[in-house]
Amino acid sequence: MSFDLAARLAARRAEHLYRQRPLLDSPQGPEVIVDGRPLLAFCSNDYLGLASHPEVICALQDGAARWGVGGGASHLVIGHSTPHHELEEALAAFTGRPRALLFSTGYMANLAAVTALVGQGDTVLEDRLNHASLLDAGLLSGARFSRYLHNDAASLAARQDKATGNTLVVTDGVFSMDGDLAELPALCAEAKRKGAWLMVDDAHGFGPLGAHGGGIVEHFGLGLDDVPVLVGTLGKAFGTAGAFVAGSEALIETLIQFARPYIYTTSQPPAVACATLKSLELLRTEGWRREHLNRLIARFRAGAAELGLTLMDSPTPIQPLVIGDSARAMEFSRLLREHGFLVGAIRPPTVPAGTARLRVTLSAAHSEEQVDRLLAALGECRVLLAPEGDA
Ligand code: PMP
Predict the structure, then answer these.
(1) Are residues 262 and 351 in the same domain?
(2) Where does the Aminotransferase class I/classII large domain start and stop, copy by copy (predicted)?
(3) ipTM > 0.85 (yes/no)
(4) CB 168 within 8 A of CB 115
(5) Closest ligand 1 atom, residue 130 Cα
(6) In the listed set 252, 285, 318, which residue is the last one of a domain according to the structure?
């Protein structure tokens, strides 16, 4: 027996699913240098343009000067420092919840919350389009794991009727590859019917959604009783790194006591928490970022519709153009790059087979003129790709 890695890699290439990492040689922003070339990027999750904000950079620098660079140890040993503590309090206040707990990544926050809440004999029910970290968490938990049809409360109900033990219903807030919103009021009512808990991962909603950037729960006006477990990530609209779980005092203490991905890992560098405190302040107070972003979203959707491009039903900065075939999606992305635009092609297994797409993302850092340039390039590349005009 041996590991035939070469054959495995060759098969991936043959299926047009081979992944390559573009090398970024500039800060995040609309204008980037990638693989040695200047490009206009429409693929970052820096939705509010905070990743390279001078005040956030300063907060990181000052934080490193004051608190050092490394977290040093896990939170329970000696890695929990004042900036972490202050950020947790600020995130609790921001989400209107009694407590928040900081994690180094969203992936770990999701593993932690699901595995600490359900285990053998329990049930975890997830939207079939949930982020990979939530699906992995469900599998790792050892609970009965089942996926309901996308955003379908009736499909959830059928599964709830067969559930055993404690039941956790888990959904993305904004679906990361489609950009649509979870139907939270309906999902929440269905979860409550059987006394299940609803967990929402709002990685892509915090920042762009809600009157104050409070994400999908603010958008729908839902509270702690509706969504007992709320996850946010800090590497997207917040522009920094890490994640948090917000909820009741008992929930947070349960995670501290039982969540292995929390207990057995080094805390994030405290300077990152200093930077996030600043970006949280900007996210809350600079409403013009959200307003500008919403104008760009409307402009892009109107322009794409005029070009006859097929968009998904997304009110968020995630505006995918579904192509279908992986090879065609790759070719479209390559042509765009030749025209000076970086837009990622997303292929299976990240998205279901036959739904490869260009994942266009917009940011408050883009200008209207840049969005118009993207639309013009999409029009030109589409013609090059499909002379009959079917994109
Ligand atoms: N949840 C969702 C919905 C995501 O899109 C992502 C990141 N792509 C994560 C969780 C993981 O967050 P992080 O990148 O901080 O690990």
Answers:
(1) no
(2) 39-378
(3) yes
(4) no
(5) 3
(6) 285
Whether residues 298 and 280 fall in one domain: no
Instruction: Give the tokens for residue 278.
Output: 């600043």
State pLDDT tens for residues 102-132: 999 999 999 999 999 999 999 999 999 999 9
Q: What is the pLDDT of residue 2?
A: 86
What burial letters (b/e) apply to 82-109, b meaning 16+ CB within 10 Å?
ebbeebbebbbebbebebbbbbbbbbbb
Q: In angstroms, what CA-CA distances link 29 with 40, 42, 278?
A: 9, 9, 18
Catalytic residue status for 278:
no
Residue 6 lies in a domain: no
Q: What is the pLDDT of residue 157?
A: 98
Domain of 306, in residue numbers: 15-48+286-385
pLDDT digits (tens, 9 = 90+) for 4-48: 999 999 999 998 888 889 999 999 999 999 999 999 999 999 999
Annotated binding site for pyridoxal 5'-phosphate: 106-107, 176, 204, 233
Residues with CB under 6 A from ligand 1: 105-107, 110, 131, 133, 172, 176, 201, 203-204, 233, 235, 243
Determine contact, residues 382/369, Cβ cutoff 8 Å.
no
Nearest residue (by CA) to ligand 1, atom 9, is: 106
Global model pTM greater than 0.90? yes
Q: Is residue 4 domain-resident?
A: no
Tell me, in angstroms, the distance from the centre of ligand 1 to residue 203's CA.
6
Q: How many domains in the chain?
A: 2
Please check whether residues 246 and 171 belong to one and the same domain: yes
Is 8 within a domain? no
44 CA distance to ligand 1 middle (Å): 13
Ligand 1 centroid vs 308 CA: distance in angstroms?
Answer: 31
Q: What is the pLDDT of residues 50-62, one digit of tens each?
A: 999 999 999 999 9
Q: What is the mean pLDDT of residues 324-346?
A: 94
- Domain contains 118: yes
Ligand 1 atom nearest to 110, measured from its CA: 10
Residues facing 331 on adjacent strands = none
